[in-house]
Amino acid sequence: MVRKLPGTLDGGVAAWSGAGRAKTRLYDNGVKSVIVGTAGHIDHGKTALVKALTGIDADRLEEEKRRGITIDLGFAHLALAGATGEDLRLAFVDVPGHERFVRNMLAGVSGIDLVLLVIGADESIKPQTREHFDICRLLAVRRGLVVLTKSDLVDPDTLDVVRLEAEDLVRGSFLEHAPIVPVSSKTGAGLEELKRALVQVSAQVPVRNANAAPRLPLDRVFAMKGFGTVVTGTLAAGAIRKEQELEALPGGKRVRVRGVQVHGETSEEAVAGQRTALNLAGVAVEELERGMSLVEPNLFRVSSRFDVLLSLLGSAKPLKNRARVHLHAFTSEEVAEVVLPGSTKIEAGGSGFAQLRPSRPMLLLPGDKFIVRQFSPVVTIGGGIILDAMPAPRVKGEQQHAFLESLLTGDPQRIIEARVARRGAEGLTLQQAVAETGWRAQVIEGFVAPLVERGRVRRVSDAYVEAGALAGLRLQLLQRVADFHQSNPLVAGISKEELRERLGARAPVFAAALEELAREGKLEVAGEQVRGAGRAVVFKEEEADSKLEIERTFAAAGLKVPALKEVLAGLKVDRTRAQKIVTLLLRDRVLVKISDDLVFHRAALDDLRQRLTEHKSKRARIGVADFKELTGVSRKYAIPLLEYLDRERVTRRVGDERVIL
Q1: Would you say residue 24 has pLDDT above 60?
Q2: Which of 108, 164, 347, 504 could make an SS bond with 95 (beta carbons 3.0 to 4.6 A apart)?
């Protein structure tokens, strides 16, 4: 289905994708997009092959044309009829073959659906042929073809020898049973056979999830006259629409999509797996660079720690703990330190769990593939898969190993359960789960729902908590309260916040556990205080005597109370226990503290209120002198008592007098 759309970018957008006049087009669901990457040694005809297939010269730089080699990534596209009748759109990423530009090759080969391993029939297998092939295997490319280019330059016997050498190279790999197609970009021989093979292999490529959160790793950033900032990349996941707001990571710069191109044609939307160009508003070219990614705002976070499964090539040297490497993932490259937990090295041809610590934060998600190259000399030595982009600090080795095993071998439901379990009583919020996995919230909720139904996971407020962790928190709560009472027999209970901080639980999870225990009658909650069920303060004999002595002293004193410190000094118990007894009396409102120095018995203050009521029947106002006469106290007591009565709204000061309310 094709229909015209308003084309605000017509006339100049051809430069976005490198070639061809732009057309305004909206693709329907009958179009399948497949990203095809080239790989192979320098001068084995990769760019010429792409041009012969598509008619597009992927060498876009003047220096590339002058030197006759591909330096940076080149792009082209081809439309074919798919094996099952759908329209097939092949996007070619032509990568450099020269060893000096392998880093550019890595930026292009990440995220491809299938590879064309190009071998020149006149030279056969060369060093970069092997390195590019190793990179494809390390990145877990699953499909591809072997193309023997320049077949017109050799005789049939030589071509057969090269074919045998190619078969030997790919034996035991994902290309072992792939078609091997001889072609000549010069004469056109074999091109139709190659197109048919591409259609057949493309039929095996699964459709990417366009409903996932969008992520576009940038491989080109440039300015275009009349349009401003333009970026290109292969859309790794999700969909990007015109006028959508995105966030550039690292950095967090917000941008707006002014226009979208797919394969050189203007579109309303780009979906996962398509070569995409975006015209952006709100950002200058200098603020973006290759290696950044455009994503949905406030969804993902960059990290400087990545737990991974790392595999080394058989040709590599053993990789030691704390070794520095060049880390390549999608279009980004950083120097990184390799930390090997519980190990001193990974042997050549071996694999193991490791933590990569790049020098700058990167945006990588579980499931992303990466390549590591030796720090010096710079050669490819291994690669692997990201397991966790937000490692938990200070996790024991055995627990961490079991967690990473779950991430590596578990299904999505098991992975979510492992991530919830790792959080313990803290719980895993839905927002955290999205950031950790890269899955959308509704997808995560679908995986968690059966776990909740089976009682393995609990939903508490905004977080998921493992049922066992919540049960453990309940036990800890009971034990902490019991321990507190044991250590503080003269204190009625512990404050909620102090208890929560001691347990290290998130507030909603703590509140849920506390509420359950209170409902079951195992704990009591009085305001902000928590105590054991039926718990009463237990006094020793000398403590009980001291409590009674304090009460008697202040009750007998009336309003002419002694200093509190003097009363406490005369008790049989030490000062600390005496202070706790006073705290209990204040809590129970037996004593009332009206200032830092003055404490009164409740009965004395009640009697004062009664006398003021009687005074009001004669006169509604009372001055300081009258108050002193009424109560028989000195100014030392009168002023604090009047201020207390003001606070209690028994009186209200008006000038030098008080109105009795």
Answers
A1: no
A2: 108
**Tokens at residue 359, please?**
């020098």
CA angle 543, 526, 574 (to 5 degrees): 20
CATH 3.40.50.300 at 14-202, yes or no: yes
Where is 168: in which H helix or E strand?
A: helix 156-170
CA 179 to chain centre: 41
CB 644: neighbour CB atoms within 10 A?
19
In sequence order, the 6+-apart residues with CB closer than 8 A to the CB of 64 are: 70, 71, 72, 74
Domain 541-661 fold is Arc Repressor Mutant, subunit A (1.10.10)
Distance CA 480, CA 217 (A): 50
Tell me: the pLDDT tens digits for 151-209?
999 999 999 999 999 999 999 999 999 999 999 999 999 999 999 999 999 888 887 77
Rounded Cα distance between 373 and 650, Å, is 81
Does the pLDDT of residue 15 top 50, yes or no?
A: no
Pairwise CA distance, residues 244 & 145, whole Å: 37
Distance CA 170, CA 172 (A): 6
What pLDDT is recorded for position 335? 95
d(CA 28, CA 17): 21
The conformation of residue 618, written as its DSSP 8-state character, comes to T
DSSP assignment string, 390-435: SPPSS--HHHHHHHHHHHHH--HHHHHHHHHHHHGGG-EEHHHHHH
Higher pLDDT, 56 or 609: 609
Task: Express each pLDDT in 575-592 by its tens digit.
Answer: 777 777 777 787 778 888
What is the C-alpha to C-alpha distance for residues 332 and 137, in angstroms, rounded to an integer?
Answer: 19
Q: Check for a shared fold between 215-295 and 541-661.
A: no
What confidence tens digit (pLDDT) does each residue in 200-230 have? Answer: 998 888 877 767 889 999 988 988 888 889 9
306-388 folds as Elongation Factor Tu (Ef-tu); domain 3 (2.40.30)
At residue 157's C-alpha, the angle toward residues 151 and 163, to 5°, is 60
- Kindly tell me if the per-residue pLDDT of 7 is higher than 60: no
